[in-house]
TrEMBL record:
Similarity comment: Belongs to the HMG-CoA lyase family.
A Gene Ontology molecular function term of the record: hydroxymethylglutaryl-CoA lyase activity
Gene3D superfamilies given in the database record: Aldolase class I (3.20.20.70)
Residue stretches making up the Pyruvate carboxyltransferase domain: 7-274
Enzymatic class: lyase
Organism placement in taxonomy: Bacteria, Pseudomonadati, Pseudomonadota, Betaproteobacteria, Burkholderiales
Listed pathway(s): Metabolic intermediate metabolism; (S)-3-hydroxy-3-methylglutaryl-CoA degradation; acetoacetate from (S)-3-hydroxy-3-methylglutaryl-CoA: step 1/1
Protein name per the record: hydroxymethylglutaryl-CoA lyase
InterPro entries referenced in this protein's UniProt entry, alphabetically: Aldolase_TIM (IPR013785), HMG_CoA_lyase_AS (IPR000138), HMGL (IPR043594), PYR_CT (IPR000891)
Catalytic activity: (3S)-3-hydroxy-3-methylglutaryl-CoA = acetoacetate + acetyl-CoA
E.C. number: 4.1.3.4
């Protein structure tokens, strides 16, 4: 089996990671987190979302964060936009990529974005069209591709259906997200294979939450299928406001350690990444939720 020799990581910590935090995180702290991530070598960072501040108050400072961000050449800054209102707000802040976000589960679509899967596609279509006309890249997040907090197990056919809808409206690449972290390696491979019915390997990424401790195993399973794009969250931050009990994405530190140990390049400096995780964890008043960060910090202390 030939594994990829290089992996691209999008750190989603500033958005997916922080969106569920109850305590307000000042825009300046978010900006510094993004700066530290790019300093550590992250070439793609999901910065914020343009959603209703009533639904996700933590992301209400989207303009302030994007406007204050010192951009680094070669780094792609992405933001979530669920509808045209979100897109029109986002475009003022010059994102490199916008992300429409749908779900393979009807119930999750309703809870998360207040509409059915079919309605979500109707909302996304003009967003995708406008972004592409403006030369902005378009990604589609597909939530609940393995399991849903409301519907239970999700069949791969539902993932293929959503991926097909995303493809039809012009979404350029998709994320196969295990939103509540219930996936195990073979199930995740089947979800990825479903997405591959509509998208090339280079356009499919893995987004694994670590609720049940399966995220690294699922990453390896995705690598075996040939996937080489992943999303993760520095310090294991996160959880989705509409997926109660789900924990954060796999920690970027843990992902990078595994990949480097397998001889797979990421372009990321693990020590600087650990420092970025300590920075945001100190602000939040807790330790990084990363085994690798804990081990390296103990080693530094010892
Ligand atoms: C999608 C909506 C807006 C629909 O919400 P809605 O209530 O159906 O929308 P609406 O068009 O009827 O508007 C209702 C109110 O929201 C406002 N509004 C409408 N759109 C916007 C906008 N873009 N930005 C700011 N405000 C907006 C609109 O102006 C109005 O304001 P009001 O008149 O009540 O003052 C709402 O359901 C929402 O904001 N949901 C939040 C969804 C969210 O951010 N979820 C977390 C991210 S997804 C995720 O984390 C999963 C992922 C991607 O990481 C992958 C994974 O792991 O699964």
């Amino acid at each position: 089996m030939q594994l990829p020799t290089r992996v691209k990581i999008i750190d989603v910590g500033p958005r997916d990671g922080l969106q569920n935090e109850k305590q307000p995180v000042p825009a300046q702290v978010k900006v510094e987190l993004v700066q530290r991530l790019q300093g550590a070598g992250l070439a793609e960072i999901e910065v914020t979302s343009y959603v209703s501040p009533k639904w996700v108050p933590q992301m209400a400072d989207n303009h302030a964060v994007m406007q204050a961000l010192p951009r680094q050449d070669g780094v792609r800054y992405s933001v979530l936009t669920p509808n045209l209102k979100g897109y029109e707000a986002a475009v003022q802040d010059r994102p490199d990529e916008i992300v429409v976000f749908g779900a393979a589960s009807e119930a999750f679509s309703q809870k998360n974005i207040n509409c059915s899967i079919a309605e979500s596609i109707v909302r996304f279509a003009p967003v995708v069209e406008a972004a592409r006309a403006a030369g902005i890249a378009v990604r589609g997040a597909m939530s609940c591709t393995v399991g849903c907090p409301y519907e239970g197990e999700i069949a791969p056919e539902r993932v293929a259906y959503l991926a097909g809808l995303m493809k039809d409206i012009g979404v350029e690449r998709v994320d196969v997200a295990d939103t509540i972290g219930v996936g195990t390696p073979r199930k995740v491979q089947r979800a990825i294979e479903a997405a591959l019915q509509h998208y090339a390997l280079d356009s499919v990424s893995g987004h694994f939450h670590d609720t049940y401790g399966q995220a690294l195993a699922n990453t390896l399973a995705a690598l075996e299928v040939g996937v080489w794009n992943f999303q993760s969250s520095v310090a294991g931050l996160g959880g989705c406001p509409y997926a109660r009990g789900a924990t954060g994405n796999v920690a970027t530190e843990d992902l990078v350690f595994m990949l480097h140990g397998m001889g797979i390049g990421t372009g990321i400096d693990l020590d600087q990444l650990v420092d970025a995780g300590v920075f945001i964890s100190d602000f939040l008043g807790r330790k990084p939720n990363s085994r690798v960060a804990t081990a390296l910090l103990n080693k530094r202390a010892g």
